[in-house]
Specification:
This protein is an alpha/beta fold and about 375 residues long. It is built from 11 helices and 13 strands. The structure holds 6-O-phosphono-beta-D-fructofuranose.
Length: about 375
C-alpha cells in the first residue's frame, strides 16, 4: 500500500494574528484527505537540527481551539534565511552560509511531498527560491503591513488596524483634556497602509506615510489652524517608515544578527520638531508590537482559514511554486515569482488619500 501523502507547514518572519487559523485549516484539510501533517518549529531552524524535535506532528488534537489565538504554535523567526543563515562561532564572530541544500535534503529525508510556507515578502522570497531548487512549495501570504502585491489583502492587517484605532481613540480624550499634540508611530515598514487606514478610521489630523515625504511646516500649520477653530489638541499618525522631504527613513534600533534593519524613531522626532515649531506641548507614542499581538478579528480568522484550506487544495491540484491569493470572491493561485516581484505601496492616486484630503487631513505635502 502506498504511504500517505506527507506535508510540512512552516511560519516565517514576524508573526501576524491569524497564523494559527491557517495552521488549523491546513491541518484539518490535509487530515481529511488521509494525509500526514508536520509543523516545522521556528521556521527553517527546525529542519536544520539533526533530531526530529524540530518537527511537530500536527493532529486534530494539536490544532484544537487555536483559531482565535494570536502568535503561532510553531514559533517563528526572521533570522533564519537558509540562503544566508547566520552561524555563530565560538569566538563570537558570525558567518552567513547558504544552507539551502541542507534544507532540501532534510525535506526529502523526512519524506515530505509538499511544503506550505506561510510568510511575508522575505519568507515568500525564500519559498520561491526553494521552489526553484525543486521543493514543491505553496506559499500563504501573511503580513500586517499589507505590502504584498499579488493579493488584495492578507490576514493580520485587520486586527492590527483595530488595535491601532482603539489606541488612537483612547488618545483623543487625554489629548483634548491636556490640549496636547499626540504623535502615534505605527508599523508598516516602507508602506503606509496601516497608518493611512488607521489614521482615516480614527480621524487623525495628519497622516504621514513613506509614500509621501512630508513637510513638517505643513503639519505645524494644520495644528495652528485647528487652534484658530478652537481645537487645541491634535492627533498625528506617523508610519514608522515615513521621512521628511530630502530625508531618509529612520533606523534607530539595534539590529539582531541575521535580522532585518529595524525602523523606528520618526515619531519622537516629529513630536519634538512640532513642539519647537508650534510651541505646543507634544507627546509621542510607539504602538509597536501591540499591533501584531492578540486574538485575530473575525475577518482575519475567516481569511486565514480560507487560505489554509486553499493551500491544501492547491497541493492536491499540484499548483506548486504558487501562493494562495485573495481575488474576491475567490482564492486563486498566483506564481510566487510574481507575488514577490514588487511591494504594494500606497498608490498616490489612491481613493484613500483623496478621501483624507477631502476630510481636511494633512498628508504633509
Ligand atoms: O513586517 C511586520 C513588522 O511588524 C513591521 O511592521 C515591523 O517593522 C517589523 O515587522 C518589526 O519586526 P520585529 O518583530 O523584528 O521587531
Amino acid at each position: 500500500m502506498p504511504r500517505p501523502m506527507r506535508i510540512a507547514i512552516n511560519t516565517g518572519g514576524g508573526d501576524a494574528p491569524g497564523l494559527n487559523a491557517v495552521i488549523r485549516a491546513a491541518t484539518l484539510a490535509a487530515i481529511g484527505r488521509g494525509w500526514e501533517v508536520y509543523g516545522i518549529r521556528k521556521s527553517y531552524a527546525g529542519l536544520l537540527r539533526d533530531e526530529e524535535e524540530g518537527l511537530i506532528p500536527l493532529t486534530r488534537r494539536v490544532v484544537r481551539g487555536i483559531t482565535h489565538l494570536g502568535g503561532t504554535i510553531l514559533g517563528t523567526t526572521n533570522r533564519g534565511d537558509p540562503f544566508a543563515y547566520p552561524m555563530e562561532h565560538a569566538d563570537g564572530s558570525v558567518e552567513f552560509k547558504d544552507v539551502s541544500a541542507r534544507i532540501v535534503e532534510r525535506l526529502e529525508t523526512f519524506g515530505f511531498d509538499a511544503l506550505i510556507a506561510i510568510g511575508g515578502d522575505g519568507s515568500l522570497r525564500i519559498a520561491h527560491k526553494l521552489s526553484e531548487l525543486g521543493v514543491p512549495v505553496i506559499g500563504v501570504p501573511k503580513t500586517i503591513d499589507n505590502d504584498l502585491a499579488s493579493t488584495v489583502v492578507t490576514f493580520g492587517l485587520d486586527t492590527a488596524l483595530n488595535t491601532a484605532v482603539d489606541a488612537i481613540d483612547k488618545l483623543h480624550s487625554t489629548a483634548e483634556s491636556h490640549e496636547r499634540v499626540m504623535v502615534v508611530e505605527l508599523m508598516g515598514r516602507n508602506c503606509g497602509w496601516i497608518a493611512l487606514n488607521a489614521g482615516l478610521a480614527s480621524t487623525a489630523d495628519a497622516i504621514l506615510i513613506p509614500e509621501i515625504p512630508f513637510d513638517l511646516d505643513k503639519v505645524a500649520d494644520t495644528i495652528m489652524e485647528r487652534q484658530l477653530r478652537g481645537r487645541h489638541f491634535a492627533i498625528i499618525v506617523v508610519s514608522e517608515g515615513a521621512f521628511p522631504v530630502g530625508g531618509r527613513p529612520s533606523f534607530d534600533k539595534p539590529q539582531a544578527v541575521g535580522g532585518m534593519k529595524r525602523l523606528g524613531g520618526i515619531g519622537e522626532w516629529v513630536a519634538d520638531e512640532l513642539a519647537r515649531r508650534t510651541g505646543k506641548e507634544t507627546r509621542s507614542l510607539v504602538l509597536g508590537h501591540l499591533q501584531r499581538g492578540g486574538s485575530p478579528t473575525a475577518f482575519d480568522r475567516e481569511l486565514a482559514l480560507r487560505f489554509g484550506a486553499a493551500a491544501v487544495r492547491f497541493v492536491e491540484a499540484g499548483h506548486f511554486g504558487s501562493m494562495v491569493s485573495l481575488d474576491p470572491p475567490e482564492i486563486v493561485p498566483v506564481p510566487l515569482a510574481e507575488a514577490t516581484a514588487t511591494l504594494k505601496t500606497v498608490p498616490l492616486t489612491s481613493d484613500k488619500l483623496q478621501t483624507a484630503r477631502d476630510l481636511g487631513i494633512c498628508l504633509g505635502d
